[in-house]
Write a structure and sequence with these properties.
This protein has 90 residues and is an all-alpha fold. It has helices at 2-25, 35-58, 64-89.
């Protein structure tokens, strides 16, 4: 549960933080290098982040749906972690 909450929070902060700051400043987000980047950010924020938080609630309750969703989601999060780290650095 803790890992799922942390993964959802990190995804939310890393991918959503720069857009929130740009919105507050009234400027476009930095590093809009290609059009597909914004689509990936939107999909990550709209699907992966809420699903991660939902799994963090369902798994401790013992709901079978939480386990079904958690296994591919954890695989995806583990595979995305190096990419997010490298995108943040570079």
């Amino acid at each position: 549960m803790t890992f799922l909450l942390a993964a959802g929070a990190v995804t939310l902060v890393v991918l959503g933080g720069q857009h929130v700051l740009a919105f507050i400043k009234g400027v476009p987000p930095e590093r809009i290098d290609s059009y597909n980047t914004m689509v990936i950010f939107a999909l990550d924020l709209a699907i992966i982040t809420p699903t991660t938080f939902q799994c963090a609630v369902l798994v401790p309750r013992g709901n079978p749906l939480g386990y079904v969703i958690a296994s591919p989601l954890l695989t995806l999060v583990v595979l995305l972690a190096p990419q997010i780290l490298l995108n943040t650095i570079y």
